[in-house]
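Much of what follows relies on a compact textual record of a protein's fold. A complete example follows; check for yourself that the lines match position by position.
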Amino acid sequence: MAYDTNLNNNFVELFSIGNELLVGQVLDTNTHWLVRNLTGLGAQVRRAAMIRDDYDDIGEYLLGALQRAPKLILTTGGLGPTDDDMTFRAISRTLDLPLEVNEAALEMVRKRYEYIATIRPSFDATLNEARRKMAYFPRGGEVLANSTGAAPALALEIGPTTLICLPGVPTEMKDIYATSLQPVLARTIGTGGYVERNIVLDKGDESRIAELLEQVQTRHTSVYIKSRGQMIEGVAHLTVVLSRGGSNLILIREEVLATEAEALEGLVNLGYGVVKVIDS
């Protein structure tokens, strides 16, 4: 039996939105950062994709995700003042939710530009239409404050799924994640955790340990087991990674350590020496 991905029901899907990602102008570091941080909470990221600034494409991915009913859908990008920033408009069209001026969001936008005017000589803080655009939210959306940028973020309940839309600028995304997004994560993902153990072996050749790891995986289906070869100081090594996320950190650690003990016994019997075990 393979690793059972359904044992953890804190499923998440991530979508990075922006043409600049798909023509190679910008590297999508947001997805990697979010995957690591959400996994650390005990969530399981099931899908991640990059999407063009296009109403139909955004709508297609959103509807597909909603049919799978994950706990969270997180998007990054498309919240700014320009016409190609269309994430909120795409959500409005796809879900038939009217776009409305959110007064709380508008006040956040206003204060941001007023602040910029205090640090930039001759800066005009007037709320023109491009700036007001960032305060047009799909009906029912909750405003998430952005303390380092102009575009407020969004949380929207859609049945069993919470849709979260974050800015694409990494510093803004990370700041919102660490501050105004935390209450949303607490009520959706909860206060779980993630345990990872890395067993570094003194020899290479994954094929020699494949059958053993398959047998261990059969008895510990809740723990993800992955091997990979690597060169360390010019010498071929194998690293066996054991990991699991979930809501009960104590039970997670117990299961990972039990899996590790069984794997170690089998690896030693196959003639492998353990260089070190890393607790990540």
Observations:
- The two ends are 26 Å apart (CA to CA).
- The chain has two domains: 5-188, 193-279.
- The domain at 5-188 is CATH 3.40.980.10 (Molybdenum Cofactor Biosythetic Enzyme; Chain A).
- The longest helix spans residues 249-269.
